[in-house]
Design brief:
Blueprint (H helix, E strand, L loop, with lengths): L1 H4 L5 H15 L4 H25 L5 E4 L10 E4 L1 H22 L19 H20 L3 H19 L5 H32 L4 H7 L5 H19 L8 H4 L5 H25 L5 H23 L4 H22 L2 H32 L10 H4 L1 H15 L5 H16 L2 H29 L15 H19 L1 H16 L1 H8 L12 H4 L5
Antiparallel strand pairs: 1-2
Helix pairs in contact: 2-3, 2-5, 3-4, 3-5, 4-5, 4-11, 4-14, 4-19, 5-6, 6-7, 6-11, 7-9, 8-21, 9-11, 11-13, 11-14, 12-13, 12-18, 13-14, 13-17, 13-18, 14-16, 14-17, 14-19, 14-20, 16-18, 16-19, 17-18
């Protein structure tokens, strides 16, 4: 039965990738593209949910092309991977449905929207490629394949970020590409160092060989990987690019970027720190300091904003600090809370950016100084903003509150001075988050309507429906918080116990130690 379930493992990558090629071939048939995209992401979500159940019994591994690791590239689905895939699948499908109803034309020319023209022939294939890149990054059991996943994300995200070809978007895209390429270069250098020092880029094999590698080389490798992933995750001081890049894109693109792309970086940090560098207290202390600075600097930036998109972009940066907090503690309790918070934040942050898109469509602006009166003319929109905003702020009993309580408990259990500083910083950040979202709520929905800016625009059900579904999904995370937290706890236990991952990739006990030279063991590695 377990063998049969392994067929699910490559599907989250293969389905959207094949669908992207089909959608591109049908570029003159927008309606067919939409059908293909929706069916593909629905199947991707179904496969991910199947893995969520199957991986609870142990990691599932598929060797790409039938070549056994370490010669071949393994795709590994453990609890952590399956949870990330499932939450990402829900978000991707809802964002796609939202974008379809945003106004994409059925004309062969493929231009859509009153203000944000989107080339249909490019949009759907690129969105599907993005989904495949996300899934590949989550499933990869090989450093170089993880690099490939990130590069797929970079190529697809640049196209999506610059949709419409406006000057503002091209400038933002240029900054995004330069920063992403810097991250990619650092990552590639780390891969080269890993292979030069150990003879492999297979994650399971690296976990076995790094303890026997020169400690100085290991520290350099760890720092290079953290720098590369820290840029992608937008950890301070590597986060300045994000608030200037994300708000310029169309609403659904900004939503999927905010919800997913930074979390892929966080996932990569979790995977490498727990599997490759499980005992590095000095680096953990550095991560604690960076987590605190990310929280505080990010939320101070949010408080100072008078535009809803930029405010949410800064809260996105700030709340990455909560996830790094849990990782840096180096405990199962901290990691379990961090994984729970990642699942919560993917959902809530995506929802808030989708709601912001509805606000912009209804009022014609996202400037808080030019918004007002939306609670009276669009009460349902007001509710759609209020629920995830309170969830982001951590109001009990919502999932944001539960995730933060888990992090605070783990910090108190650690008992170190840096952990206590993070506990205090988390509380302050949560209060300032509440202040920021309440300020936005009051200005956008309750203040008097400024003269000549409000527009009487009906919001399509195809846009409000997926947004409502994501709000409901966020509430479901609260209702199912007990089982979900239990799952994230088991996921943390598996991640912290590197032997489980290694044994899944090498079930016959291959490469136990360094009895053979790296070249002999890994002749087929790239």
């Amino acid at each position: 039965m377990t063998h049969d379930l392994t067929t699910l493992v490559p599907l989250p990558v293969l389905i959207p990738l094949c669908a992207a090629g089909l959608a591109l071939a049908l570029h003159r048939h927008p309606r067919a593209q939409r059908i293909i995209s929706v069916v593909a992401l629905s199947l991707m979500l179904a496969a991910s949910l199947g893995l969520l159940v199957a991986a609870d019994g142990g990691p599932l591994v598929v060797d790409v092309g039938g070549w056994a690791a370490p010669v071949g590239i393994p795709l590994v689905a453990d609890r952590l991977t399956a949870l990330m895939l499932s939450v990402s699948g829900v978000v991707l499908l809802c964002v796609l449905l939202y974008s379809i109803s945003e106004g994409i034309s059925e004309s062969p020319d493929g231009l859509a929207g009153d203000e944000d023209p989107i080339p249909v022939a490019i949009y759907h294939p690129t969105f599907l490629v993005l989904a495949a890149g996300v899934a590949n990054a989550f499933l990869s059991g090989d450093l170089f394949n993880l690099y490939v996943g990130f590069e797929i994300l970079l190529a697809a995200s640049y196209v999506l970020l610059t949709l419409g070809g406006t000057g503002e978007r091209i400038r933002a895209g240029a900054v995004y590409v330069v920063v992403s390429l810097l991250s990619s270069i650092l990552f590639f250098v780390a891969i080269a160092l890993a292979y030069a020092s150990t003879g492999t880029v297979n994650l399971a094999q690296l976990a076995q060989r790094l303890p026997e590698t020169d400690p100085g080389v290991v520290v350099v490798l760890e720092l290079l990987l953290l720098l590369a992933f820290g840029i992608k995750a937008a950890i301070f001081p590597l986060s300045a690019w994000l608030p200037d890049s994300y708000p310029t894109a169309p609403a659904p693109v900004t939503a999927v970027f905010a919800g997913l792309l930074t979390k892929v970086g966080v996932y990569a940090i979790i995977r490498t720190q727990t599997l490759l560098f499980p005992d590095s207290p000095e680096v953990d202390r550095v991560l604690m300091v960076l987590a605190l600075l990310t929280m505080v600097v990010g939320i101070l930036g949010a408080v100072a904003q008078d535009d809803l998109k930029r405010l949410l972009s800064f809260t996105l940066v700030s709340h990455i600090g909560f996830m790094v907090f849990g990782i840096a503690l180096g405990s199962e309790a901290g990691l379990a809370a961090a994984v729970f918070y990642v699942a919560h934040h993917i959902t809530v942050q995506t929802t808030l950016f989708l709601v912001t898109g509805l606000v912009e469509r209804r009022a014609g602006t996202t400037s808080l100084d030019r918004l007002g009166g939306l609670a009276r003319v669009a009460p349902w929109l007001a509710l759609l903003f209020f629920v995830p905003a309170m969830n982001l702020a951590g109001i009990p009993p919502l999932s944001g509150f539960l995730g933060k309580v888990g992090l605070l408990e783990a910090g108190v259990a650690d008992g170190g001075p840096l952990a206590w500083a993070l506990v205090a910083g988390s509380v302050v950040t949560s209060l300032l988050t509440l202040y920021a979202v309440v300020k936005a709520w009051n200005k956008a929905f309750w203040q008097e309507v400024p003269e000549g800016v409000a527009r009487d625009v009906r919001l399509p059900r195809g846009m409000t429906g997926p947004t409502t579904a994501l709000v409901a999904f966020g509430l479901l995370l609260t209702v199912a918080a007990g089982p979900l937290y239990g799952y994230t706890t088991r996921a943390a236990e598996t991640a912290m116990d590197g032997h489980t991952y290694v044994d899944a990739v090498f079930p016959d006990g291959a490469d136990r130690g360094r009895g053979e030279s790296p070249d002999a063991v890994d002749e087929g590695a790239p």
